[in-house]
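Hello forum,

I keep getting stuck at the same step: I have a sequence, I want structure tokens, and every attempt I make locally crashes halfway through. Rather than fight my setup again tonight, could one of you with a working pipeline run this one for me? It's a single chain of 342 residues.
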Amino acid sequence: MITGFLLTAIPNWTDRLPIQGARLFALGRGLRCRSPCGDVLGLHRLVSDRRYRDGAFLVLVTAAAAREMLAARKWGNLKVCVILTVMIAANVTFHVEAHVWGTADYGIRLGLAAIIMLILIIGGRIVPSFTHNWLARGNPGRLPVPFGRFDVVALALGGMGLVLWIALPTARTTAAALLGVGILQTVRLARWVGYRTLRDRLVLVLHLAYAFVPLGFMLTGIAALDLLPASAGIHAWTVGAIGTMTLAVMTRASLGHTGHALVASTTTQLIYLAVLTSAVMRICAAIEPQRSNMLLPVSALFWVAAFLGFGASYGPILLRRRRDGDEFKPMNVLEPGGADRH
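Reply #2:
Ran it on my machine without issues. Output:
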């Protein structure tokens, strides 16, 4: 999902042609290559199993992204490559932990933290920007607060909170940091005036997806105080933030890149409702484990419905030619201020 996003967004960031043809095929081949991690760590027998070769794919994606950024001199966007490098480290940590100790706690937390930071960085750009673009078209009133010093502080403290959670997930210091970050991210989200986007579901769902980020921080902070199961906050981040943001961006990009109007149809709104319901039910199942036998199947059903609904609804339009007939017309729906201006 992250690779698909980057392959779509990087050409918009760099004004370069997208990765395609043989270069794109080479990325796919990375899934079948021997991981370089084994050579670095001396775990040759470990990586001889194909299950451990996924590290090569992450390395190739990171290298391809960095090459495009450097060629276009987009130094500011290199922070995305830093996140990808953290994901590589998380992947290596996961396999080493599992092989040596039979667990993967640090690797899982490191990988999840990397993805949450990606949402904090990129989501923190596109959500207020798309909101601003929509409100500026005939919706007079308060606009989202532009990216500024407050956002820099929120990102920095968010990263520090996640580092503490990775290293000391049950410490009182970690609990205080996570709760503080949760409050800070809630304020950040409120500054983007999501309440004014009720009429545009494509924009509203971005706010709802991001809302699971501060919720995850707060639930994880409460869990560090041993007042809730740790899985409550983790599922707020995974099913809620990651799952909903994935569908929010995929639907928007699919419409824009196929020449369709950026309008959420009834089916699209049902997809959003399904994934949001799945997230809420999964969090509730973690908080109320005695009712998990009922809540878990409901969450799973709505999760499957959301993604199958996306495939059934958007698959046909992705397989057809663009509606305007121009296969090479750029449609910048992932760069703030891009296609939303049209």
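Residues 35-48, 337-342 have pLDDT under 50 and may be disordered. If your local run keeps crashing, start a new thread with the error log.
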